[in-house]
């Protein structure tokens, strides 16, 4: 029931590969369909890398299970490996031992450019026509005019606080960056280099003199200011988290009272037998976020089962189950009528078909040395972010 659980693992990604990515990676007007011409007989097995909560088999909650019926229908016995971070996903995919992955935007470009992911024939995806158009043909699932995956779902990284301990109610990310915070030692932040973008997004709004236009495209001055803010924040941080159980527990017992979260953690705290009084919001500066994509390994031993899985996991029924269990906007818009049978407000709450809201989020992507604009190759690449994050945490 978590997105990322476990320590960060530095991806085996060369500087040459980062340079090859360039600043674009955007889709062509009419992306090409490559990959297999048809889906053959299932190979009887499937091995996938997932964010926890994306492949439930009833072991966490006997009423939450979409893996077992998939296996019964296809004969593809499914082994789901939970990854803790996007870096870990990239490293695992590079072993060639897995058939596919549910990758976020700060991993997908590396998988596409590196040849780790295979082009996907979207004509074989039975639910592709019903996928939110705003999620299609994007830099996080399409590269140089070629499709590389099936959109799964998306959401925002939120500011959460305990309403019984944090007053007045915060409306800005400044609440977690204040060096004189009254909640010093009880502030939390996501433990990953990509969190640098959260600080950059805050500075984009509060430091117009820096001229930040994209929190993932930072020149040296912008990057140094962002790193300085995060080092300042380090003095009030009680703990960094990547394991949802630890984040949930810290809010529940009061060790943490404010910080970054995902909707699933808020949902679990509010649904507990002894609910923790928390609120999760998108602050006035906006938020970073994610859009996840199912990708097929270029070394997949069970590609037919992987295509069958992509068709299964993007169906309205299964999308509705995943979205409600995890707490995210489903990619398939036809999931909303299904969800509406039990939760009439869910799709409105998660802004499922709100394109303006989606485009307003700064979705995770791979930081590149090429700024993607007239500045050229003066931005900080992913290796710089990795090094800085280690320095920030001390």
Q: Indicate the low-confidence ranges by residue numbers.
A: 1-29
Overall mean pLDDT stands at 91
Instruction: Return the CATH architecture of the largest domain.
Output: 3-Layer(aba) Sandwich
Tell me the domain tally.
2
The number of distinct helices, counting runs of at least 4 residues, comes to 15
Classify the secondary structure makeup into a structural class.
alpha/beta
Largest sheet: 8 strands, mixed
CATH topology-level fold name of the largest domain: D-Maltodextrin-Binding Protein, domain 2
User: Strand fraction band?
Assistant: 15-25%
InterPro entries: SBP
Keywords: Signal
Protein name: ABC transporter substrate-binding protein
Organism: Candidatus Aeolococcus gillhamiae
Give a structural overview:
- This protein is an alpha/beta fold and 394 residues long.
- The chain is 33% helix and 16% strand.
- The radius of gyration is 20 Å and the shape is globular.
- The two termini are 30 Å apart.
Chain-wise SSE layout:
Elements: H1 15-21, E1 45-50, H2 67-74, E2 77-82, H3 86-94, E3 100-103, H4 105-113, E4 117-118, E5 142-143, E6 146-147, E7 150-156, E8 158-162, H5 174-177, E9 187-190, H6 196-206, H7 220-234, E10 237-241, H8 244-253, E11 258-261, H9 263-271, E12 278-281, E13 288-297, H10 303-313, H11 316-326, E14 329-330, H12 335-339, H13 346-349, H14 355-360, E15 362-363, H15 382-393
Parallel strand pairs: 1-2, 1-3, 9-10, 9-11, 13-15
Antiparallel strand pairs: 3-13, 4-13, 5-6, 7-13, 7-14, 8-11, 8-12
Keywords: Signal
Protein name: ABC transporter substrate-binding protein
Pfam families: SBP_bac_8
């Amino acid at each position: 029931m978590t997105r990322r659980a476990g320590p960060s693992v530095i991806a085996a990604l060369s500087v040459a590969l980062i340079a090859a990515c360039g600043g674009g990676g955007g889709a062509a007007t009419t992306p090409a369909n490559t990959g297999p011409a048809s889906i053959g007989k299932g190979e009887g097995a499937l091995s996938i890398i997932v964010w926890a909560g994306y492949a439930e088999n009833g072991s966490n909650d006997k009423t939450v299970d979409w893996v077992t019926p998939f296996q019964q229908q296809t004969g593809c016995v499914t082994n789901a490996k939970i990854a803790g971070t996007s870096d870990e996903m990239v490293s695992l995919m590079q072993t060639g031992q897995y058939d596919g992955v549910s990758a976020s935007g700060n991993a997908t470009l590396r998988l596409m450019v590196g040849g780790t992911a295979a082009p996907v024939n979207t004509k074989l995806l039975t639910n592709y026509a019903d996928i939110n158009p705003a999620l299609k043909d994007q830099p996080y699932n399409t590269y140089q005019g070629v499709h590389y995956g099936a959109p799964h779902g998306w959401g925002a990284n939120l500011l959460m606080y305990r309403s019984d301990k944090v007053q007045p109610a915060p409306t800005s990310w400044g609440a977690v960056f204040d060096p004189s915070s009254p909640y010093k030692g009880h502030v939390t932040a996501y433990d990953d280099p990509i969190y640098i973008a959260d600080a950059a997004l805050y500075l984009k709004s509060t430091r117009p003199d820096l001229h930040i236009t994209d929190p993932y495209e930072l020149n040296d001055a912008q990057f140094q200011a962002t790193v300085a803010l995060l080092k300042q924040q380090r003095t009030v941080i009680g703990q960094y988290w990547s394991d949802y159980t630890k984040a949930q527990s810290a809010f529940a017992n009061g060790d943490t009272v404010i910080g970054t979260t995902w909707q699933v953690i808020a949902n679990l705290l509010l649904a507990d037998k002894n609910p923790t009084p928390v609120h999760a919001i998108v602050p006035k500066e906006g938020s970073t976020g994610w859009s996840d994509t199912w990708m097929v390994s270029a070394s997949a031993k069970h590609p037919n089962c992987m295509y069958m899985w992509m068709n299964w996991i993007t169906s309205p029924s299964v999308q509705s189950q995943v979205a409600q269990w995890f707490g995210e906007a489903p990619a398939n818009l036809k999931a909303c009528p299904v969800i509406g049978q039990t939760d009439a407000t869910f799709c409105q709450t998660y802004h499922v078909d709100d394109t303006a809201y989606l485009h307003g989020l700064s979705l995770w992507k791979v930081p590149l040395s090429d700024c993607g604009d007239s500045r050229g190759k003066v931005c900080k690449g992913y290796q710089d972010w990795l090094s800085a994050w280690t320095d920030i945490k001390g």
